């Protein structure tokens, strides 16, 4: 599978910035099945290709969802219903333009572990991804991604909201800090708003069907 679009279609779990002999600054792509591929292009280019493949306007997404989580940098990037990329610091770049961040799919995360003071992400495929974030920071990154997931316009009912909450409880079995509680309170308010919006959309659709 050499065509990068075929790799995208296989399902992306993680994009990792790496230095490859002969290629320099490159990207490792990990699929949902845990298969790894290498692309000689930088991770910024690969992400842009991924967005183009799914007709996503990356800058517009970052602006919109950055407003929701009150951030301009490190904004999670929703691609489709099963792919929401979380920016994660994964390396110390040799050169400033190489970039330190990779991306992990929210829906590929099984759990988190702590090693030597830093957070590691365990994927459903069994692969473990080291980060350069402290655990609290990594959890906040994931929580913000869940907040973005709850605000994707394609939500039409409460089902997606309930799924988001299920993921939250599965991945956040840890003593809550004040920061975690603040984020959770904000998430609940946002999720309630999304649920209300989905219910209204559902009711309007039923009214429309009854009037036809």
From TrEMBL:
It comes from the Bacteria. This is ComK protein. It comes from Geosporobacter subterraneus DSM 17957.
């Amino acid at each position: 599978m050499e065509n990068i679009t075929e790799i995208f279609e296989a399902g992306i779990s993680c994009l990792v910035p790496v230095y490859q002999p002969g290629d320099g600054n490159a990207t490792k792509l990990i699929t949902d099945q845990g298969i790894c591929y290498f692309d000689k292009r930088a991770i910024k280019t690969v992400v842009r290709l991924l967005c183009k493949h799914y007709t996503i306007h990356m800058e517009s997404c970052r602006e919109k969802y950055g407003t929701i989580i009150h951030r301009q940098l490190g904004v999670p990037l929703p691609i489709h219903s099963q792919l929401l990329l979380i920016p994660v610091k994964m390396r110390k770049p040799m050169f400033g333009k190489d970039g330190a961040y990779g991306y992990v799919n929210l829906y590929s995360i099984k759990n988190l572990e702590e090693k030597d003071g830093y957070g590691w992400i365990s994927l459903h495929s069994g692969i473990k991804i080291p980060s350069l974030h402290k655990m609290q920071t990594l959890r906040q990154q994931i929580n913000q991604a869940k907040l973005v997931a709850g605000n994707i316009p394609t939500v039409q009912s409460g089902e997606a909201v309930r799924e988001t909450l299920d993921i939250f409880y599965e991945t956040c079995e840890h003593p809550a800090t004040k920061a975690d509680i603040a984020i959770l309170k904000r998430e609940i308010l946002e999720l309630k708003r999304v649920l209300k919006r989905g219910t209204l959309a559902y009711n309007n659709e039923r009214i429309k069907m009854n009037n036809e």
